[in-house]
Amino acid sequence: MNKIFNIGIVGLGQIGIYLYNELHIKKKEIEKKTGNKIQIVAISAKNINKKRKFKINRNIFYKNPLRIFDKNKIDILFECVGLSDGISKKIVETALKNKINVITPNKTLIAKHGDYLARIAENNNVNLEFEAAVAGGIPVIRTLKDGLSTNKINKVYGILNGTTNYILTEMEKTGETFHKVLKKAQQLGYAEPGNPKLDLNGFDAFAKVRILSALSFNNLISKNDCIMEGIENIDIKDIKIANQLNMRIKLLGISKIVNGKLFETVHPCLVGKNTYIGNVNGVMNAVITQGYPVGESILQGEGAGPGPTSSSLLSDLVSILRGNIKKPFGLPSNKRKKINVLSNNEYTNSLYLRFEVKDRPGVLSKITNRLAKFKISVKRIIQTPNKRNNKATIVIITHKTTESNSSKCLSIFKNDKNILQKPILIRLYN
Amino acid sequence: MNKIFNIGIVGLGQIGIYLYNELHIKKKEIEKKTGNKIQIVAISAKNINKKRKFKINRNIFYKNPLRIFDKNKIDILFECVGLSDGISKKIVETALKNKINVITPNKTLIAKHGDYLARIAENNNVNLEFEAAVAGGIPVIRTLKDGLSTNKINKVYGILNGTTNYILTEMEKTGETFHKVLKKAQQLGYAEPGNPKLDLNGFDAFAKVRILSALSFNNLISKNDCIMEGIENIDIKDIKIANQLNMRIKLLGISKIVNGKLFETVHPCLVGKNTYIGNVNGVMNAVITQGYPVGESILQGEGAGPGPTSSSLLSDLVSILRGNIKKPFGLPSNKRKKINVLSNNEYTNSLYLRFEVKDRPGVLSKITNRLAKFKISVKRIIQTPNKRNNKATIVIITHKTTESNSSKCLSIFKNDKNILQKPILIRLYN
Lengths: 430, 430
Description:
2 copies of one chain form a homodimer. Chain A is an alpha/beta fold.
């Protein structure tokens, strides 16, 4: 006990700098909790002169992050750059090979190279920790690896991206369009000012789904093509109609085992307003697991921002300082299996379909006939005419049907001149 | 690696026997996840012939649990007897002193003797794990010790008892009285058939509150007298009135730091139907923490029953098999402090007051004058006359006032012949 651990931090953006500050503030408490001492011996970022929220110690600054390893004996490295490849991968790889523990909030790195990096960590008997990679401050990685470790989990899903959840919540609340609310989110720091695309198109949530699957089902991270849809095309009109149907639109990440096969997806879902998930609003994240014998477990908390992220980064640090050597994915890499995947075509849902049509006789029957041809049975139809311009909105809620069926069925409508735009399809959460 | 760990189980009631079975089913998976082997070498219960759900191996059965230690080299002992003292304490004490790791779901033992037992465990460098003691399958202990370990937590509260939450939910749903629903709960196995008192009077939830406080605030377990009220006196009438007010009654366990002082309590609360906690129904448990920088975190799951409990017991086992030596309360006992407590009198709430009165002039004004005298200001009054018997029900929702104030104010009414029964007081959750 009372060993001194040397810490390096690479990347001093919003998260890295907050962490740097927290490590100073919490130094004594961390030492009390773990019986070991810490000191930051090296930091690195592209630009030493960038305006930062907290002052940095220039004496331990490196422009080239790889130089850190030459000049110092590092015990624990925080990777806070955030790329899926490039320097992020290089640093983590180099550190692990040099028997240095790595802590990272980098979900895209782990989702893409997690298996490879885990093997290096195991071979070198060091830790690769990534609690902050999924759902910010919610300790869901730890919960799956430790707390629920002996349960047979068959499903894990939830709201995994705070930015999109904030936007959807705000659209419903204000009635404003996606683009207006996105701007507000950027001003508030909830969405990246430069390129918010990876949040909006579901990519960020999808990386988290891949990581959750691996931890829940003990499989190697899957690489298959999946249904991944974001919220860029969510129209305020659908949010309002959902509201009338006592539902809300949420961007869900879903991973489940169906007949022994893995199915992963991210897409907007209509969920009931009276359900749990329908009430996780704003920047909150929630992860729900279904397991045996534990039943359904819910974890909810703030999913983004430097505070929650730093909370998770420090929990990883405390774990390492306490001497807990852990396999990055809970069990040894050679015991993790490749898992067969369910074809996207077999994915089954009730659907919300919205058609904007010319208000002419026969249009509705053409739609319903087409649905009938594909054995898609209708649960509910709401037709709202707009007398002024002789148009109408037809909303149809269907019973369950497969992806393959629905895409075949709907494909024809893009060539129909009575149907004024591509039909809107939003899946219902079952 | 590949060490063989000898396991003993003392207590083969509902939980012990389920665990015994699970250990057989999950043996391989546990060994795969931890790289070590396990074998059950000793079991003990009062009665070998009792009818049990799963068959036991009689060759390793001991009537006297203390004999287990003489005859075997035990590495890990499960204490599943469940008493706060007596044989439960004796076994755990003996095991720890003999450098045997202990795992227990026994909340009353930990709430009463946890500090003492933790010291023995630390001195002998073995683990005392009690994940299953609070909120069944929800890994809340682990989350506080590890996942949120560096956050400054200022409040932890929630629904900590599945039995009472089931009863309250069922009363609301069916409109049946407490006693009728209690019988149903007993038939379904949600409430103990013999003596359900410890669930109903808040004692069980209170033990959990004490444990949560110690983990959240790093204090020694407090021993002070607290406000502890159960649900035995909850009248279906109040549930119905709450319903009209768009509220529900929930038994909450609350622990918080107010001006640096600890305040712990368990009592029924009126909560909004549109709040998160107001929608945790049935046997579900939920624990909510407020911390900095992580913000609000929620953990929800099944709070009782052998399945969820066993899930937590096995998570403790996996942790020990992975070689994680941990302080039972997260930090060394000598670093845990005695904490000053807030006087119950200073506890402040809005109140729901129900008076059953003779419908005579001046009765209401007498009540409101009395409230005014104690500066308890009224937010809302609902008076419902019952013409047939010349009586009336007066419900008053007050603004915030202290316990000391409200008890002084209400004391007078028991001697008033126009007030037909002791006023009902239920606190509102703020």
